[in-house]
């Protein structure tokens, strides 16, 4: 494993330090048509039984991972708000009580949407839970993360722009095979806004049932995309994010945010910051002021990995959505470099792209252009979940120097944190029903990769090994 890590890291260092020309993958393969799966398909099946809970999904419920928010929908009547849970299957000796609400969107009337905070959980523990009443009870489970610890290992999956086509299904199923413990979702969930009138709400419901096989068992950390805005004056619906906000709660209060659209959570050894590309973010706005403070709250001694999620990518060399992230880059890029963000994940562009460590800051000599920058994050676009709009297969030519690898295929990523210094990253292409690891590298932590800190870490490690050996020799 060590040899493999060293080999992979030397490959990455070659790419990063020499600024080699990037790669535009020549891979092309016909995918399934980019049309939504028909509503009568089994992936959208309504669970059996009167008022059976459906569209079950969980997300982190607090700042540090000792709580989850569990959401579900009942179609016929409000039913019970209770969650019964415990440490073994069938033994639900604990309960939590949630809330229920419904809403209308044009003439569509939603089901009863339940949200329940389950808190005070133990770290690194598998919990079993049951929801619903009578013969319609349903059972699920989830695993809490390890306690916040700089060397806690953890595996994240990254998915964006998912939709509900057969390509989306392929992405979801491949992601399940990776063993990802939590999904970082970079916006654009259901693409229900592509429908008219009542079908908008109906396709939010079908997407909830579609995603349940993953989202009921592991937290999805949500961020909102443009397809969540749903500003429809022709239907009399002018409140942005209305369907999304009713259905996908986030623990924003725990990070002292004033909006569910931007917030942060800490999980294992990672501090994850979620931004909203479609909410005000310029100087003096609530999102700007919150992020200013939240970066100061990051403690790399406790959570070495600093990850940012947003929808619209800051660096993108695809014709699709070219420069749309530029306004956010101007406002936030200097912070990303100053605070040494490890990686920024985005979606929006329906293709895959990874950048080198680069920045385009206004420098003291008055110049501003993209240069190699060791303090900068790696920017990764994973907008390739497989929605009905199809692939963005027109990359700009020539490939810009900042672009390391790009390919117009469907897929998803994993980021497996090994310890405070190393993480292994994969982008997995969907290839005729198979999951193919296509872009792979070792990510060196931006804080602990610093030479002085690394030497200190090695020295401390050596001291603890020597004292361990001495204790063993003395029979202590
Ligand atoms: Fe988008």
Overview of the structural elements:
- With 476 residues, the chain is an alpha+beta fold.
- The protein contains seven helices and 26 strands.
- It has helices at residues 2-18, 166-177, 199-215, 242-247, 286-297, 326-338, 451-473, and strands at 23-24, 54-60, 68-74, 82-86, 94-97, 99-101, 104-105, 108-109, 112-118, 126-131, 138-143, 154-159, 182-185, 220-221, 263-267, 270-274, 305-309, 343-346, 352-355, 358-359, 371-372, 378-382, 403-407, 411-417, 422-431, 434-444.
- The two termini are 31 Å apart.
- Residues 5-19 have low confidence and may be disordered.
- Bound molecules: fe (ii) ion.
- The site of fe (ii) ion has 7 residues, from loops.
Count of helix runs: 7
Shape: globular
**Radius of gyration, whole Å:** 23 Å
Percent of residues in helices comes to: 10-25%
* Helix-strand makeup class: alpha+beta
The main pleated sheet reads as: 8 strands, mixed
How much strand? Answer: 25-35%
Q: Which strands sit side by side, in order, in the main sheet?
A: 1-23-19-22-18-17-16-15
What is the number of strand segments? Answer: 26
Spans of at least 5 consecutive residues with low confidence: 5-19
The small molecules bound here are: fe (ii) ion
Mean pLDDT: 92
Concise structural overview:
The chain is an alpha+beta fold.
Summarize this structure as a short list of keywords or feature phrases.
single chain, 476 residues, alpha+beta, eight-stranded mixed beta sheet, 7 helices, 26 strands, 27% strand, globular, binds fe (ii) ion
